[in-house]
Amino acid sequence: MRVGSVIGGGRMLKSQRYHDSIILVVDDEPSALEFLSVLLREAGFEQVLMACSVAEATRRLDSARPDLVLLDWHLGADDSANVIRHLRMTHADEIIPVIVLTADMAPAVKHNALAAGASDFLNKPFDITEALLRIRNYLEMRRLYQTRERELELARLETLERLARAAEYRDDTTGQHIIRVGRLSEQIGRVLGLDEERLFELRHAAPLHDVGKIGVPDAVLRKPAPLTREEWEVMRQHTEIGARILEGCAYPVIQMARTIALTHHERWDGIGYPQGLRGEDIPLWGRIVAVVDAYDAMTNDRPYRPALSHEQAIETLHTEREKQFDPMIVDAFLDPATFSTLRGETTESDT
Ligand SMILES: [Fe+2]
Predict the structure, then answer these.
(1) What is the pTM of this model?
(2) Under CATH, which number does the domain 169-350 receive?
(3) pLDDT tens across 300-309, in order?
(4) Please, where in the chain does CATH 1.10.3210.10 lie?
(5) Which of 61, 248, 256, 284 sits 20 to 30 Å CA-CA off 134?
(6) CA of 314 to the centre of ligand 1 (A)
(7) Residues of the chain with CATH 3.40.50.2300
(8) From the CA of 208, how far away is ligand 1's center (Å)?
């Protein structure tokens, strides 16, 4: 049976903007499952997942993130509410609509489904046009939510970048140092095999490593000569000032940034600051930024000395391997993939 011909207005959702939405259909009746699948495909949905039991539905939810779930409320001996509970657990930070399909619209059924977290109902046998319109409306709501989430994330990241730039402004008005440190730290994380979420956090957290310099006086920060012992003591406080600026936040990027601000001057051999941590007691993020920050500082002019060449900086990394720097991070820095990123940075900054 061609469902499109049944619904008459079957093309109403064709060419619609939600064609790539993932819809999970859960029903223990093979014919009902097939009907819904054909209906959705005819309506233009290209990614329809099917499950005939709670166990199969939960497996689907573990491996995919649907945009909407159509859930039969009477799955034989299974409790359909378990599908919703599993969805809310595995995708806790998402709003994923669940439309319950049932022939039994008794108040108790509705109450149970709503209490479990259902968004809406469709009464079997349902009006196909109404069903498709409801699905479209829920997908529209979800898309709007995702757009707002992305905008919020971008606003957060932009605020962080501006904070990093503010801290760096007295050293480098172009803000290039913080951008390079972010990109190179991410690249080293990639060589180390970190997952995409950690790489994202690293890229946006690393530029905040020196945010505590906001609290260091110009007379120390911009002194065009080597610092005295007392001045070094003041300069070193930027690690703890940075950690205080960034502490107490639940946002993972800022939590990582706090760790980096506090630990990027620790040394592998234990004679760094502020805590004198040694080896792997130093958080990985701090060990990564220690190498990247040192390389970038060496290869760019400072008020008290001109820039070293790339070769001279690499020689220093070799010399300081297992002394100042974690050997694993130095090796990741010397990986050809990191060098490609470096060459890209050079080309970009030259243009
Ligand atoms: Fe620093």
Answers:
(1) 0.76
(2) 1.10.3210.10
(3) 887 667 889 9
(4) 169-350
(5) 61
(6) 19
(7) 3-146
(8) 9
Q: What is the largest CA-CA distance in the chain?
A: 86
Of the pLDDT bands very low, low, confident and very high (cuts 50, 70, 90), residue 2 is very low
Residue 265 in tokens: 């001057």
CA of 167 to the centre of ligand 1 (A): 11
CATH 3.40.50.2300 matches 3-146: yes
Distance 212 CA to ligand 1 centre (A): 8
Considering the chain, what percentage of its residues have pLDDT values greater than 70?
91
Through-space distance between the first and last CA atoms of the chain, rounded to whole angstroms: 61
| Residue 223 CA to ligand 1 centre (angstroms) | 16
pLDDT classification of 1: cutoffs 50, 70, 90: very low
Cα–ligand 1 centroid distance for 189 (angstroms): 19
